[in-house]
Specification:
- The chain is of the alpha/beta class.
- The chain contains four helices and ten strands, in the order H-H-H-H-E-E-E-E-E-E-E-E-E-E.
- Strands 1, 2, 3, 4, 5, 6, 7, 8, 9 and 10 form a ten-stranded mixed β-sheet that branches.
- The radius of gyration is 24 Å and the shape is elongated.
- This is Cell wall-active antibiotics response LiaF-like C-terminal domain-containing protein.
- InterPro entries: Cell_wall_LiaF, LiaF-like_C, LiaF_C.
């Protein structure tokens, strides 16, 4: 039997959690009655012609639906289990960062693509190592979730102009290795953590900072714009 993918497992868990919540709501009239009233109020608001003047109905209806849902025991168990799972995955990946070494080729100018799946994809948690892979350069836009991440652009053949690297993470450190001949702009935001730009380190607490390197950013043939944001974690940018 083929192994079930992680996304499929998460989908099944969410399906069973939704089924359990629905069953608990049906068996507990103290939760089911407010939920039913809330659905009726939302339906009444939606059927009205002038909805803007009746926003209070929408607020009351959504509240009556939302409160019973989060009051179910299944929802509380699901949230606690998800938090424990996230902590376990983070502890596994803390000392085993995902390392991505990017080696690119020049894009084919004659190819017309309406939809393209990026080579580097989102990862909520887990280990990943990509080494010596060749692909056409695309701007990087990923979410890392939990764990440390390393992206190595040191040997990358960047196209002329500006290349964008956008990374969002929850908990964990991010390390970016950039080519020595590329001009770099960093826009970083964090709740708590350190920012190390070419060995210049500073502490951040619920703040964001924009860092420019080199005085000839506009005239450089190859430029990298890095946008990073983490809740808790350090970010380091260094050259090859």
């Amino acid at each position: 039997m083929k192994n079930i993918s992680r996304n499929s497992k998460i989908g099944w868990v969410m399906l069973f959690a939704g089924f359990g919540m629905a069953l608990e709501l049906l068996l507990n009239w103290r939760l089911f009655v407010p939920l039913l009233i809330g659905c009726f109020i939302i339906y009444y608001w939606k059927s009205q012609k002038f909805r803007d003047s009746k926003k209070m109905y929408l607020i009351i209806g959504v509240s009556l639906v939302f409160i019973p849902l989060i009051s179910t025991a299944v929802f509380k168990i699901f949230i606690i289990s998800a938090a424990i799972y996230a902590l376990i995955q983070y502890s596994k990946t803390k000392n085993q960062p995902k390392k991505i070494i990017v080696d690119t080729i020049q894009p084919n100018q004659q190819t017309k693509i309406k939809k393209k799946i990026p080579f580097i994809k989102n990862m909520l948690s887990g280990n990943r190592r990509v080494v010596n892979e060749i692909f056409e350069w695309d701007d990087i836009n990923i979410q890392c979730g939990f764990g440390n991440t390393i992206i190595d652009l040191g040997m990358t053949m960047l196209p002329p102009g500006e290349s964008v690297v956008l990374i969002r993470g929850l908990v964990g450190n991010i390390q970016l290795i950039v080519p020595i001949d590329a001009s770099v702009t960093i826009n970083h935001s964090a709740i708590s953590g350190k920012l190390n730009i070419f060995n210049q380190e500073e502490e951040l607490l619920n703040s964001n900072v924009i860092y420019y390197t080199d005085g000839d950013d506009e005239t450089a043939s190859r430029r990298i714009k890095i946008v990073t944001s983490v809740v808790f974690g350090d970010v380091e940018v260094r050259r090859t």
